[in-house]
Structure formats: C-alpha cells, structure tokens
Design brief:
mainly alpha; 7 helices
Length: 154
C-alpha cells in the first residue's frame, strides 16, 4: 500500500506558478521547488513526474485561474505573468508550451478585439516588470536614456 499524499496538489501548483513566474523555468531547481512548496522531492515526482510536469500544471492553472477570467471580462490589467514569461522563456524550446501560449494569446486578441491591443498590453507588462525588477535590485535608471518619440511629422 502506497503512502498517502501529504500535500495539497492545488496549493503546490499555485505556489509553483508564482515561483516560475518570478524566476522562469531555468531559474527554478527541484531543490527550490521542494523548499518553496514544503514538499518532499519524491512526492513531487510521484504526482507530476518531473519538473516539466509541474511547470505545465502550473502554467495551465495560471491560464485557467488568472488569464481566462480576465478574458471573460477584460477590464484593467490582466494578471498574466507566468503566461508571458512562458512565451519568452519556454515556448521557443517546448512545442507544448508554445501551442498553449499561442492559443491563449489568440484568445486575448479575440477578447480585446484587436491584436494591437494585445501588443500594447504586453508592452505595458514588460515595462512594469522591468521597473519592478530595477526597484528590487536597486539598479538606478539610465540617466542617458533616449527621450520617447513624439510622433512623426509627414
């Protein structure tokens, strides 16, 4: 008879999603997951099979819990950190992640009514993420950053 699972799978998936969103797939080790989730390594492998299995479960959970509810009523800023990190970090190397990201971004296009709106939302997210990262690391902004373009004259 096998041992009873001693952790809540949904809580573990949610905590893993937060960790992967902050540090990306390659920035999270199995030891990090074990420590952060407070579960035994064998339990993680027993339930998810691998780090990738947990990552995919976390990404799907994030899409269903954070992204799709926003799609049903697109107001404010979407909470889609893991989705966009996955688009940059894992999609180029993992066809399953690429397919999921592409499908969800197509849903975002449909919800906003215009792919340019999706692009603007992604741009805003990137700027906020960079600013937050800079604040957390204490790196000051560049003094010689170029001024934003004021539009073109015809």
């Amino acid at each position: 008879m096998g041992r009873r699972r001693s952790f809540d799978v949904d809580e573990a998936v949610e905590a893993a999603a937060e960790l992967f969103a902050r540090r990306a797939y390659d920035g999270v080790s199995i030891d990090d997951l074990v420590t952060h989730l407070g579960v035994h390594r064998n339990s993680l492998y027993g339930v998810f099979g691998s780090k990738r299995g947990l990552y995919l479960a976390a990404l799907r959970h994030h899409v269903d819990r954070d992204v799709r509810p926003w799609l049903a009523e697109p107001a404010g800023e979407p909470a889609w950190d893991l989705l966009l990190v996955a688009a940059v970090d894992r999609a180029p190397d993992d066809p399953e992640v690429a397919d999921l990201v592409a499908a969800v971004l197509a849903e975002v296009d449909a919800a906003t009514g215009d792919p340019r709106a999706t692009e603007a939302l992604v741009g805003q997210w990137l700027r906020r993420r960079a600013a937050t990262s800079r604040e957390q690391t204490g790196v000051p902004p560049l003094d010689d950053a170029p001024e934003p373009a004021q539009g073109r004259e015809n």
